[in-house]
Amino acid sequence: MNLQSEIEYFSDVQPVDQARLLSVFLHELAVEARSTYGPSVDQVHDGARLRFVNEIVCRLAGFIEQLLADDQTRPADDVVLRMLLSPRADTVAQDLVLNAYRRAIHGFDRYDATVAMDK
Fold this sequence. Notes:
Layout: H1 3-12, H2 15-33, H3 47-68, H4 77-85, H5 91-109
């Protein structure tokens, strides 16, 4: 995966579609996080990675709200994509993110992007 091309692609997408893409990513990341626990509440076997996913979810949920509110103080697109897709020392955590991102991009490509019509 080429980080710079992912940043460029994301930056070319309208904010509402960026929010939609990141929402799909959050869903896919939650699916990935299921590997960190068992079927009952007391069976968390990878708490560090579950916490890692929770932190990503928290940050992206806030960013999505800023996108939808057109908050100009939100982090730049490249900052968000670098946070998600830059290489990590923890390769298992990196794989959680990259697997979720690949599925989100694949799912996102199946839909038409929102078109903003000028009046």
